[in-house]
Amino acid sequence: MSLKNRLIIMNFLQFAVWGAYLTSMSRYLGPAGMGAYIGIFYSVQGIVSIFMPALIGIIADRWVSAQKLLGACHLLAAVFMASAGLYAISSGGNVSFAIFFTLYTLSVAFYMPTLALSNSVAYTILDRSGLDTVKAFPPIRVFGTIGFICTMWIVDILGYQTTPMQFIISAFIGLLLGLYSFTLPNCPVSTDTNDKTLAQRLGLDAFKLFKQRKMALFFIFSMLLGVSLQITNGFANPFIASFEAATEYANSFGVKHSNILISLSQISEALCILLIPFFLSRFGIKKVILIAMLAWVLRFGLFGLGNPGGGLWLLIMSMLVYGVAFDFFNVSGSLFVDKETPHNIRSSAQGMFMLMTNGVGATIGTLGAQMVVNRFTSWQDVLVNGEVKSLMIGDWQSVWFIFAGYALIVTILFAILFKYKHTPDLKKS
User: Fold this and answer.
1) Total domain count for the chain?
2) Could you tell me the pTM of the whole model?
């Protein structure tokens, strides 16, 4: 099997693990009595990303081959995720928040570093094969999004959106990927440690990137835009489900299969990844990130205007712009960091990018979003087609417009403050 195909399998499974529960978890938490903690469940992904990706990246740079570390992290994450799912199933309607949240957090703590680590593994293998990462990686990474979509659909079609079975599916795929990772080509650690300081030996050189104004601003805005990353993952599904309380929308396809509707976001993402090489070479990192930021404004604004009936097209448009919003920032940003940092601190630098986006940014964003959502909505028991359901009812329009306003402010500031001289091949400037 070719190296590209092996990396395609890795990326497919990498995101299939996440797709099994990321967009549907909130639909389970609400009826299980943990609806008030949705923001906490999503923010913990950011909290562990503040230190775990950087720590794992340092270990991968210095002591343990990246592909082996990737496998170990996935195996541990899968064990804890399976434990969380099995506990929830056995507990029925008496799930303890403390126990379930602890098991979930331990799983996420080992999964989140793999997002950066899998990139590092792919970049290293492609580099050692003499391939250009900017051109070769996006077509490989697109299969990660396809994997995410596949498990979203599986969970939706099997009716697991409101059950803990979604966590079992995630754990099973994680076990497969953990074992598969050990079969990948070796990604050697850096052995050049002569006459280096302790900080250099520990791989803390990545923090020196903040001395460069260009990189410091890039990481700061990565954090500010990272605020937006998990908001729709956490609240889009409860938002769409809330329309079930209205008779005219209760039996619409969007309400009945909200995960499939949301998966249009990931389908768009899969297509947009393929556009990244062209946009980066033609417009440069600043304009590409600006496009991503404007897409976030549209993402939230269209949610505020849409509904599953006559306004379904607005929701669909919101799903379609998500691909631009997510990929043009995350994937392009990762490639930018890869090209702007020395090879011996590549894993640490990718960990830093993850820290600022999925760490500090996502933590602030999800906790802040929970406060906004709690201010304008609440979980209520509603009679739907003769059945009592727990739905998040309230002024969702104000919620989405507040998020859109924030994204617009960040966009304007980035356009003014971030300076970068574009070169077509992303060479250092």
Assistant:
1) 1
2) 0.80
